[in-house]
Design brief:
- The structure is a single chain.
- This protein has 198 residues and is an alpha+beta fold.
- The chain has a domain of 134 residues: Transposase IS200-like (Alpha-Beta Plaits, 2-Layer Sandwich).
Amino acid sequence: MTQRYFHRRNLPHLHYNEGNYFVTFRLKDSLPLKLIEEIRNSLEKDQAELSIKEKKLFKKYDELLDSGKYGENYLLNKKVVSVIKETIEKYENKLYQLICYCIMPNHVHIVFTILNTGKTLSDIMKLIKGSSSISINKLLNRKGNLWQAESFDRLVREEKELYNIIKYVLLNPVNANLVSDWKDWEYTYCHPSYLVLD
């Protein structure tokens, strides 16, 4: 039976205990708070529908993240990336079926199908971010929060939307001018049955 859970931090989140999810989580210092507030304030004046505003907000955030201008780009460190990959893959077929992911220099995109284990999306993200943070902090000899507390998440409702999201995730390094072909970005994975690019 499908259950839904609602919680609010800075953004409202409605989670189901099953379904396909697209999640983006980022390093804590990857976007300055002042800049985020400026973007939000400019969009509050926008007369567009809420869903269109959310898309615009995500696009602006993503452009800023892809620029790599702010914070430490810890995720360019191969040992750090290995920790994240191992953490994501550790829960595959236990809590979710992995569709794809892309580890960028300061953020991570992941798409998966939640398995009916009683764990919510919030539970899953706490495990991924929490365990990877402990290992990465130890590796980098640092202390404190590594990840921004709140993640962007979206329940994927349609096959076409899933296709577009997978394409977006795989092409993120290309669109950020890190590589010219998505296959050249070694921090990207897509399950063969979901591969939408050749």
